[in-house]
Design brief:
This protein is an all-beta fold. It has two helices and 35 strands. The chain folds into two domains: 227 residues; 112 residues, S-adenosyl-L-methionine-dependent methyltransferases.
């Protein structure tokens, strides 16, 4: 990653072709009341700005688009799909909550990413299968044949098993993330497998056995980088018995991380834990084995030394506001914040991280990290976008360590909006070129 000299973000916005922005509010008063028609209507590369509400599922197919929750908005979405992105296409999902079951009444992950040559960027999301109907939902995130999946500061929790659905279903068991032949970069994420279902008997010798706990992440082929993440396997289901008759053994806990298919994994500053085995209720049946922090069946797992710095931003940000950027890192380190208008996904082991800034990155600011461990930057956003326009920028920090060497932080995607989308922030303010 070659960085150009220190610059202001607003200087470069006029050179960027601003894309269309459409608004969504299920209560009315916006361009659309649901997500799918907004996604279909917005021009390629545009932004769908979403207000508080509960929205139906959506499919993004072969199209660049950012779907972004507005300031402080709580946006709940039914299980959805991103598929068939071509190389160079980018989908950004920021601030969305996937916690509800499918309206279609079939088993689905909360989000499925399929056959994507482009990049899918997920930030400040919640994918919580424990809040959904476990008859209908399995993994929080399912990724298949996807070239680049980037997640920052997001929670992925697999659904808990139930006595009506114990898995595995058509999309595998209830892992936090299940991925096949895909490349993932996770930063500051929580990854938890669901609890296995408890077994039960319907009569003396028939019933449904308990099920194993889900893995925090199950990776089959591909690559994974995880910085400052928490992996936790789910507990196994308890056994059961029929009075005076048969019994089920307790089932095994899930692994924090399960690796197979030759997958290559690099982990930095992350914790991994296995789930507890399910208990037995009657001899001679026994309790299940506990899951392990990690299990490499076929592939490799490398733990990198050091701590993972992090970047957090305010987004969306409007003209007339200032973009706030917080970098968390080692006290005494020197943090340089850079931005780009194109995302990247390139593992760079000399700097213990992943390069996420493509194109030509520019340095926004450089400062030392104080004893608190957090250094804050701000940059004003002037009146530089056309009316109704928006743009996306990607931010990352390069941290120079006191003892020598560099480390890359996790990234953040920022949506920049024209003042026409002020939305509760007061009247638009003229910043540049204001006449009488």
């Amino acid at each position: 990653m070659t960085l150009l000299p220190t610059s202001s973000l607003l200087v470069f916005l006029p050179t960027l072709a601003a894309a269309q922005v459409v608004t969504v509010d299920d209560g009315g008063g916006a361009d659309f009341t649901d997500l799918q028609p907004a996604i279909d209507a917005v021009a390629a590369g545009g932004t769908v700005l979403v207000k508080d509400g509960v929205y139906a599922d959506f499919t993004i197919a072969a199209k660049s688009v950012a779907v972004v929750a507005d300031d402080g908005a709580v946006v709940e979405v039914l299980p959805s799909v991103v598929r068939d992105l071509a190389a160079g296409q980018v989908v950004v999902l920021r601030g969305l909550r996937f916690t509800r079951e499918s309206a279609a009444g079939i088993t689905l992950p909360l989000l499925a990413l399929e056959n994507n040559l482009g990049r899918v960027w997920i930030e400040e999301g919640l994918f919580d299968g424990t809040l959904a109907d476990t008859v209908l939902t399995t993994a929080a995130l399912r990724v298949v044949d996807s070239e680049s999946v980037i997640a920052a500061r997001t929670i992925f929790r697999g659904a808990h098993g139930s006595q009506f659905f114990v898995g595995p279903g058509p999309f595998d068991v209830n892992h936090g993330i299940v991925a096949k032949n895909s490349n993932l970069a996770l930063h500051g994420c929580e990854l938890t497998g669901g609890l296995g279902a408890t077994g039960f008997f319907t009569d003396f010798d028939t019933g449904i056995p308990p099920h194993a706990g889900g893995h925090g992440v199950s990776l089959d082929g591909g690559t994974l980088f995880a910085g400052s993440c928490r992996f936790q396997g789910g507990d196994g289901g308890d056994g059961a018995h029929w009075p005076g008759g048969a019994c089920w053994n307790g089932q095994s806990g899930g692994h924090g991380l399960f690796v197979t298919g030759g997958a290559q994994v690099h982990v930095l500053d992350s914790s991994l834990g296995g789930g507890s085995g399910g208990g037995a209720t009657l001899a001679p049946c026994s309790a299940g084995a506990s899951g392990t922090p990690s299990l490499v069946d076929n592939g490799s797992l490398t733990t990198l030394p050091g701590a993972a710095p992090a970047v957090a931003t305010t987004s969306p940000v409007r003209e007339g506001q200032s973009l706030a950027i917080d970098v968390t890192g080692q006290s005494g380190a020197l943090a340089g914040v850079a931005f780009s208008f194109a995302p990247e996904h390139l593992l760079f082991l000399p700097w213990s991280g992943v390069v996420h800034l493509g194109g030509t990155p520019f340095v926004l600011a450089v400062a030392g990290v104080p004893p608190s461990g957090t250094v804050s930057f701000t940059t004003p956003i002037g009146d530089v976008l056309p009316i109704g326009g928006g743009a996306s920028a990607y931010v990352q920090s390069v941290v120079s360590l006191p003892a020598g060497g560099f480390v890359l932080s996790g990234p953040s995607a920022v949506t920049i909006l024209d003042t026409v989308f002020w939305a509760g922030q007061g009247p638009p303010r003229c910043v540049v070129g204001c006449g009488p």
